[in-house]
Structure formats: structure tokens, C-alpha cells
Amino acid sequence: MTWHVLGAGSLGSLWATRLARAGLPVRLILRNSARLAAYHQAGGLTLVEPQQTSLYPLSAESLDAHTPIQRLLVACKAYDAEEAVARLAPRLNPGAELILLQNGLGSQDAVAARVPRARCILASSTEGAFRNEDFSVTFAGQGSTWLGDPLPASPPLWLEQLTAAGIPHQWTDEINTKLWRKLALNCAINPLTVLHNCRNGGLSQQADEVAALCMELGELLRSCGHNSAANELHAEVRRVIEATAANYSSMYQDVAAGRRTEISYLLDYACNAAFRQQQPVPHLQALQQRLRTHLSARGLPTT
Ligand code: NAP
Questions:
Q1: Atom of ligand 1 nearest to the CA of 83
Q2: Whether residue 178 lies in the annotated active site
């Protein structure tokens, strides 16, 4: 069974190369024929790891190819996922499976609505990778990936393939709670690193702001029915700030590189959920407003 990988960026390449290294059939799906030509020019995907750098000449096609798809790893940014999957919908076999790697919340429902007959498995990953240049990715941070089906269902058999490929993962029956917890951590840390122009560790100087956000996020998680995601949230945020003190958050890196952020699927999603729950979240809303102002002053999209 071929692993089709939509999006040969950081995370998509990290998964594709490890699956291929384990001898599993992998096929990349790139956005158009120009990107496909650039990929062939590069000769494959390069994975840079601490001990080795290897080139993987994986097969690839563009979005408008016609081969049927049974298993699709969706590795675009959250804001690209729905449209890209909609383009592939006619190629999905009955009973096809999608694995959605997007951070935050909101894109998963949008994707699932476009492919009502497919099974969508959601992922929340703490692995880290970044692109050095096109089709070359550095594996920057060990981590693990939670996988789960928001509908009651048993784990897929291909989890064994992830094990064979050395992709650390765990199955959970509470994937939405895991995604909410990560969203809350991201909301408490990432926007502040952008606004204060600092590494994660710099937020130890902003303890009151962090505490106020954690308080609102914890209440929001509880009111949305994710009590376990609210447990010890503030303590974990402080731990993450300390443990990743030298790192720049993904949102910081996006803004610094002039790239669009995933704000719609993080802070905006939290604020919209609070609105629906009629829960006041003045600190989150103020943060959202400040971040939008900051992004628009730099000519970046505010959604
Ligand atoms: P990325 O490096 O920007 O890669 C996204 C890829 O998607 C790009 O290669 C892009 O193509 C491709 N793409 C976009 N639209 C497409 C389309 N219509 N058809 C085909 N390909 C398309 O992003 P990333 O860092 O891997 O992040 C992906 C998701 O994983 C995000 O939601 C992110 O938050 C999450 N995540 C990332 C990490 C990490 O360490 N990187 C960790 C945890 C979670 P082009 O190359 O042509 O632009």
C-alpha cells in the first residue's frame, strides 16, 4: 500500500524519508508541474540528521495526476490543507485513509467535510524539522506523535509500519483533547514570543501575562469538555518555556521569515470557541488584537 504524501515540506519530508528508508512505498504529491520539475532537478529529498545526510530519490507526481489514492499523509500547513485535499478528493478510493498532521484546530474539520467517505486520522506531533532549502530538511528535534480517530474506531494496522520506520507514535482515543492541549500551549507561548521578539525562554520575564492567558485557556478547555487538557496547564507552560528556553517558537520563525502564520487555527480558534461558549477571555482577545496589528504592520496576513 503506497503512502501518498501531500506536501514535501519539513514534516512531510521527515515522514516520507523515514517511511522510504524502511522499504515502504512512498509517493510525493507536489503542488504543480513547476514544483515537480524542481524536485526532479534536486534528485530527491535530502534528510539531514545529526549523524548522517542522505538523499532519497522518491517517486513524485503533481496534484493533478490521476493515480488512485488509498492512504494520504496530509503535510501542508493548516491554511493549505482543505483546498489541497479537495483537489485530490476524486482520486480517493472508497475507504481511503487520511492522516492529518496540521497543528492547531479547525483545518481537520474542514478537510473531513471535503472527504466524507474517507477516514480521517488526526495527529499531534512534537517532532521538529525545518527546511534548509527546497527538498532538503533537517531533523531538528526528537519528539513523538499522538494519532487518533475523533470517531470511535480501532487503531489502523499500519501503525506497525510507523514502528518499522522509527517514527515514534502513540495511539489515543482522545485525540481532540491532545490537540486542544497543544493548542493551549501554543496560544500561551507563541504569540508572546512574536510580540516580545524573544526566544521561548524570554517569556520567563512575562510571567504575569503567561499566567493570565493560562487561566483563561484552562477555563476554556474545561468549558469545551476537555477537562484533562486543562490539568496543570500553567505548570506545563512554565516547564516548556524553561525546557525550550533557547528555541524560537514556530510562529516567531514564521514571522521572522515573512511567512504566513497559522494564527487562524490557534488563537483565532480559541477566541471563536470562547465566543460560542459565551466565556469572557479578555486577555486572549487582547493578544489576538495585538498580534493582528503586529502582523499587518509587517505586511503579513492576519488570518
Ligand atoms: P512546510 O515546511 O511549509 O511544508 C508544507 C508543504 O506543503 C510545502 O512543501 C508546500 O509546498 C506544501 N503544499 C502547500 N500547498 C500544497 C498543495 N496545494 N499541493 C501540494 N503541496 C502543497 O510546513 P511544515 O513545517 O512541514 O508544517 C506542516 C504542518 O505540520 C503545519 O500545520 C505545522 O504546524 C505542523 N507541524 C510542523 C512541525 C515542524 O517541525 N515543521 C512540527 C509539528 C507540527 P511548497 O514547497 O511548494 O511551498
A1: 18
A2: no
